[in-house]
Amino acid sequence: VYTLELLYRESWVDNRLDYDKSFFRNKTELSLHESYAKFLWIPDTFIHNALTSQNPEEQSFSHRSLFRLREKGHILYSRRISVVADCPMDLTLFPFDVQVCKLGFESCKQS
């Protein structure tokens, strides 16, 4: 078992969100408040070998979530996550062993 604090980033395209940059002072990227998440389609990604995972509490300093909307509906989503994950270890060669612990990211619906 191991614990990680990580910044998770994911990007995808939602063509419905393509916008005319001339309406936004020719900006090619718009930052969206995290409250917009409830109006957007977001991939259902999860860590399959996580024993627990959680987002920091909303008002804490470490709570960071970011949405960026780029031209042609490109979305970048970043958030901080705490994860406790499973890692089977073989300690037969200890103290000369090497362990590799992986995180497995999957989609609930797209398997």
From TrEMBL:
Q: Which InterPro entries match?
A: Neur_chan_lig-bd (IPR006202), Neur_chan_lig-bd_sf (IPR036734), Neur_channel (IPR006201), Neurotransmitter_ion_chnl_CS (IPR018000)
Give the record's membrane topology: Multi-pass membrane protein
Q: Which UniProt keywords apply?
A: Ion channel, Ion transport, Membrane, Transport
Keyword Membrane assigned to the entry: answer is yes
Bilayer-crossing residues are none
PANTHER family to which the protein is assigned, alphabetical: NEUROTRANSMITTER GATED ION CHANNEL
Can you say what this protein is called?
A: Neurotransmitter-gated ion-channel ligand-binding domain-containing protein
